[in-house]
Amino acid sequence: MNLSALPAFADNYIWMLHDGTQAVVVDPGDAAPVLQALDAQGLQLAGILVTHHHPDHTGGIEALRPRLMGPVWGPARERIPAPFTPLAGGDRISVLGLTFEVMDVPGHTAGHIAYAQQGDGETPLLFCGDTLFSAGCGRLFEGTPAQMHHSLSQLAALPAGTQVCCTHEYTLSNLKFAAAVEPENRERAQYQARCEALRAQGLPTLPSSIGLERQINPFLRCEVPAVVNAARAEGAANDDSVSVLAALREWKNRFR
Q1: Active site residue 53
Q2: Sheet (strand 125-129) strand order
């Protein structure tokens, strides 16, 4: 199975998974990169996975329908261009012979879902949209800090080797913030150097992994004393993980 990140807009990635004949894409905000990749590699479009309703994740669906030979899957509680197959947490779907479990991960939007690969003997994949980023998390447009904390905790509990396929190239910006939160985190510093080298070559920093994110992502480390102390200094009401996450997210919103 082949996985690639198709750049779109200023910093989006549309993930494509294919077996050499058929492909599925995740969150196609723009049809053009998908059509170009399908034509260049002689692939049929077998399906589309959608994590949430924002236009930079759904805007290319209609233009792709003439090439689509399978379903559009998306969150049942969000405004996805119809027709689509609605999904909710606990559902399972088969994609190119791989099984994905659907996870409810609200916070960025109210009905956001993620797709976590189960078993299949492959390196597991996670398509998490804008809930989890490398070294960061999505803004809370429709959800609460408690919802986001629960969503991130679910994702952090996935196997350490799970590849984190998020949909924006925000890594260096997120790592700059992570350095302000945990300046003594050696794993973060090493990862930042690797990511800077990748970006200097014009390469994606993604996918990351769940195991790495547990080490370097402050939003997955809301119980670590250094992170708690940094959040308290920025206004966290107490040491509770939800209060810490809320303070971190507000801090990140204004961080430059």
Answers
A1: no
A2: 92-95, 98-104, 113-117, 125-129, 163-166, 208-209
Q: Phi/psi of residue 113, each to 5°? A: -125, 165
- The answer to whether the annotation marks 150 as part of a ligand binding site is no
pLDDT band for position 83 (50/70/90)? very high
Q: Is 18 a catalytic residue?
A: no
* Contacts of 254 by beta carbon, 8 Å cutoff, 6+ apart: none
Q: How many domains does the chain have?
A: 1
Name the pTM for this structure: 0.97
54 annotated binding-site participant: yes
Catalytic (active site) residue 112? no
| pLDDT tens per residue across span 133-167 | 999 999 999 999 999 999 999 999 999 999 999 99
Quick one: tokens of 23? 């492909």
- Catalytic pick among 18, 27, 30, 54: 54
- Predicted local confidence at residue 120, as pLDDT: 67
Instruction: For 42-76, write each residue's pLDDT tens digit.
Output: 999 999 999 999 999 999 999 999 999 999 999 99
- The reply to whether 52 sits in an annotated binding site is yes
Residues spanned by the domain of 51 = 2-254
Which CATH number fits the domain that encloses residue 217? 3.60.15.10
Q: Pick the catalytic residue from 18, 30, 52, 149.
A: 52
53 is in an annotated binding site: no
Contact 23, 39 (CB under 8 A): no
Cβ–Cβ under 8 Å, residues 74 and 87: yes
168 carries an active-site annotation: yes
